[in-house]
Amino acid sequence: MKHIPRKRFGQNFLTDADIIRSLVEAIRPQPEDIMVEIGPGLGAMTQPLLQRLHHLHTVELDRDIVAWMQKHYPAGKITIHNVDALKFDFASLGENIRVVGNLPYNISTPILFHLLENVGHIVDMHFMLQKEVVERMVAAPSTPEYGRLSVMLQYKLQMEYLFTVPPEAFDPPPKVESAFVRAVPYATLPHPAKDEALLGRIVTAAFGQRRKTLRNTLKGLLDDAGFATLGIDPQLRAENLAVAQFVAIANHLG
Q1: Tally of domains in the chain
Q2: Residue 168 within any structural domain of the chain
């Protein structure tokens, strides 16, 4: 079967054998791992993962690819979930799940936020993503890449940029570079928020207008007295605050 990549699914299939080998070595699958692969495509990572695992779960929306996988992989070694990853209940697989995938560029951020909701069941995550997205995921405060995604992921996850992947490693080649990233949930949150939903609203409001100061973006939430109590300069912008400071604001208001 010659599968034609579908633009609406953001399909770019990994084909470079050396890159694939590097990915699997970074993941270090162990036979007993409960591992789920998001968007397996035509099996670039699936096959080498199956060589090291007793069993693998995959989440794939494209029914043509599901049919292809059913023909090529033994049912006892793989469970194929033909469902949108944004709707899949990762917690249903149990505890200590390891998640891997070459995430579609067009829905990568929503998938990351969906996984955050299941993070208590996850040991680690390894993803291929658009390089620009990975740079935002790992960004430090006071850098152009630092934003809402950085704060919300780093609140719960330890992030590590592993390596860059060139467009020619894919078919068809995307118009951008990719990167491989590792995310490991904290066993204990370093800066726990009393109300995580409130934290999310504050971060969203603060980054809603990046060029404006915190005094303006958080107007109606935090007054000058509140900033003073927290020791935060209201003339700063959202990108200047560390995760701990956003949590401090949320806990002050919560």
Answers
A1: 2
A2: yes
Is 123 found in the same domain as 24? yes
State how far the Cα of 151 lies from the Cα of 139, in Å rounded to an integer. 9
Amino acid at 35: M
Position 6 scores a pLDDT of: 45
Q: Give the burial class of 14: count Cβ atoms within 10 A of its Cβ; 0-12 exposed, 13-18 middle, 19 or more buried.
A: buried
> In sequence order, what are the residues at sequence separation of 6 or more whose Cβ sits closer than 8 angstroms to the Cβ of residue 244?
190, 191
Q: Are residues 177 and 246 in the same domain?
A: no
What residue numbers bound the domain in which 231 lies? 196-253
**Does residue 111 share a domain with residue 232?**
no
Task: Give Cα separations from 48 to 25, 44, 53, 92, 95 (angstroms).
Answer: 10, 8, 9, 25, 23
Average pLDDT estimate for 157-174: 93
Q: Are 56 and 78 in contact (CB under 8 A)?
A: yes
Rg of the chain (C-alpha set):
20
170: helix, strand or coil: strand
On whether both 177 and 200 belong to a single domain, the answer is no
51: burial class by Cβ within 10 Å (0-12, 13-18, 19+)? exposed
Here the CATH number for the domain that contains residue 153 is: 3.40.50.150
pTM over 0.85: yes
The model's pLDDT over 2-14, given as tens digits with 9 standing for 90+, comes to: 444 444 444 577 8
64, 41 in Cβ contact below 8 A? Answer: no
Distances in Å between the Cα of 80 and the Cα atoms of 70, 105, 216 are 8, 22, 49
> Is residue 191 one of the residues assigned to a domain?
no
Express each pLDDT in 197-240 by its tens digit: 999 999 999 999 989 999 999 999 999 999 999 999 999 999 99
